[in-house]
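Supplementary material to the annual report.
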Amino acid sequence: MKIRIGIFGYGNLGRGVESAIRQNPDMELVAVFTRRDPSTLKINTEGVIVAHADDVAEYKDKIDVMILCGGSATDLPVQTPQLAQLFNVVDSFDTHAKIPEHFENVDNAARMGEKIAVISVGWDPGMFSLTRLYSQAVLPEGENYTFWGKGVSQGHSDAIRRIDGVLDAKQYTIPVDSALEAVRSGSCPNLTTREKHQRECFVVASEDADKALIEKQIKEMPNYFADYDTTVHFISAEELKRDHSGIPHGGFVFRTGKTGFNKENNHVIEYSLKLDSNPEFTSSVIVAYARAVYRMNNSGDCGCKTVLDIAPSMLSIKTPEELRKELL
Amino acid sequence: MKIRIGIFGYGNLGRGVESAIRQNPDMELVAVFTRRDPSTLKINTEGVIVAHADDVAEYKDKIDVMILCGGSATDLPVQTPQLAQLFNVVDSFDTHAKIPEHFENVDNAARMGEKIAVISVGWDPGMFSLTRLYSQAVLPEGENYTFWGKGVSQGHSDAIRRIDGVLDAKQYTIPVDSALEAVRSGSCPNLTTREKHQRECFVVASEDADKALIEKQIKEMPNYFADYDTTVHFISAEELKRDHSGIPHGGFVFRTGKTGFNKENNHVIEYSLKLDSNPEFTSSVIVAYARAVYRMNNSGDCGCKTVLDIAPSMLSIKTPEELRKELL
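Predicted assembly:
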């Protein structure tokens, strides 16, 4: 008997989940829910129901885990609490500052429904959070550093697209090599925003646009670019499509710390990700946590959890015996 | 009320645990147990009892978690099951092939005593095992690679010391850079033993020794050196003491995997450790798991566990609320 999965929302993340389910033989995709007209939605898996989001309650007993693939800004704050009353759910809520509030709302809903909800699953929050926690716990006296990139920032790309005369744009966040090296050396540097990351922008401008003005507007944009060293390249729509249509991302988490009676020994923990597809990797993490959610609810637990609360072995298709023998 | 810790065995690891406890304000060291005459043992913390190993049962109600600091070859297979009947325990059993057998023995003992035992805690097994599990779970189609070093291998150093004419020796295991790069590129190389690691030996020979013969004996030693590119340096006892008295170690765990409907996207997960002191870092991991052990037993659980079975949040001195707010 396979774990029956539902996908709620069919964008990049939803397609990533659909694809990831195929790599997990103990799972099957049962239905995809959309706010569009279901008859217009073409999905990649044959024999799977496409239903309207409004009809989701009808699937209460047909789906073991519902994976929410909406956005953190407006979708998930509403959808996750609603659906956690009916289903075990996993979401990728990534507005760090609002996690405590989201957790409370989802926890109340999941307890009412006697379901398990796991929020903020992915790589940051997600795998990076795990690394931060483990490394702080084992090296209590030290410093944490997180770097993002090289990767595409959707929010920054959107901000450029809103400038007059810009037809399309893609922005890459890039960690500064010298900052990575300084952290890696164990010297515990104090790094400014500008010293940690740089930003590279590829912009398609309209024919009559004032490129110098666009570049100035980008570089001086508060919050988004003003605090960074930013490079702007003007390219054609064809070049943008050919060279910049991927959604790569990644990053680094470091912990440097000291041990010993006289703090004489230094240690460096480094975790990094290089991802060809940000949404597909995020989806892959989510699908592994769907397995954990299913198991935890089957064992009688309920309420909201995060990756920090879930034992690693719950994620694996392997038995505890296999894990001890093969992986430990 | 602090978590009361006992240390069973006072070598490098025991001293590391003693030092690590000072970095964890919710813990206190209560007693150190030794098989030597306790009156001859000088420890680094004032006011702590030094007792004979034979008297350990008298401390049953005075210690919350006993940390076993003996060796995996002969100490832990006997001591961990014995002590798990009386105390919550943590050990660093690292003979990978014998973990399933050790687990069974310790599990039976801990259930009899209604205690929690966590075995095989450290960095490999330990932090590396966690990385292998998480990364396999999120990238089911891919390859795992583990590299060790640069670091001192005690077993290989000992093997050199047993050669006629050798007064002292230190052996470093070193990952081969080109192998690391090949793995990092995502090309999934098949690597032989020789391609993955090299070995560097610093040897103090007696005055009349045949150095050429010693070098030949090292390089041709089956299992230990014959399958590796090995470099041998003859140095003085003073140089060995001055330049090679540390116990550094470290290593790398990689997972490379593919996602997408056509497996078109590659992902690379890399975790690495650079440790000035192998025993102190191992001790620091153990002490974090002592906290988890204490909490799990307080919540009524018992039996043998590994790092794979324990939720990350159990390791941290911070509350779940703090963790969600600060780390997630």
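DSSP finds eleven helices and 14 strands in chain B.
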